[in-house]
Amino acid sequence: MWTPKYEIFHRLIQESMDRFPRLRADFCDRPIFFEQALFNKKLSTEASVHSFMNSNLKVDLIIQCIEQNWGKYFIFSDADIFIRSAKVKEMCAPFMELSYDSVFMAENSYDSEVNIGFILTRANKATLALWKDIQARINQNGGHDQSIMNNILREGWSGKWCTFDIDDVVSNKTYRDDKFIIFQFLSSCNGYESDMAEKLFSQYKFTNYDISHLYYLLDDKILNFKG
Fold first, then answer.
1. Where would I find the Nucleotide-diphospho-sugar transferase domain in this sequence (predicted)?
2. What are the distances in angstroms from CA 59 to CA 11, 30, 78, 144?
3. What is the CA radius of gyration of the chain?
4. How many CB atoms lie within 10 A of CB 156?
5. Which of 4, 67, 105, 169, CA to CA, is 20 to 30 A from 74?
6. pLDDT tens-digit series, residues 174-210
């Protein structure tokens, strides 16, 4: 899902799909666009707080995807990912063959925390109940969707789940070499401009991909961080 402020990441995903035609053969990509005003209304703007705090925006979308793709597998991701390889289907195939309900990106390399920025999900009763549980907890008590997900997994979710290989789906927290398939850009939650600069200027170097041709999509406040 993307908004005008995240158009650069949407464009980069589309460029990845164009670089690897096999991806378009393997997957039917369905970008979900939000008007910026609606997106801003649903997300937190408090400093040093994750933008999805107390928001069901992503949760509602995933529930909708599950209901519309019943019995099938799909990948749900944030806009700020980089696809380095065409081998996404091969990466997912073993989990599908073993009938996993959900496969998450590892949040870090030292515990079982998961990140919900890139998820392989099977649309079934188990996953629908999982996301509706998260939805209900946020509606009742607030909280961060990813933190609530980790709490539910620790409590013992009935579905079959695991994480992707830490060298296949990586972030700036888990990066070890350039053999990864998917890179997820994570920020320090220091405000929109700072977070965008952190992802695009500090972390994009891990991809070895030149993005300067898309700098025109960024406002000056972000570019000023580059120097």
1. 56-158
2. 24, 17, 12, 11
3. 17
4. 6
5. 4
6. 999 889 999 999 988 888 899 999 999 999 989 999 9
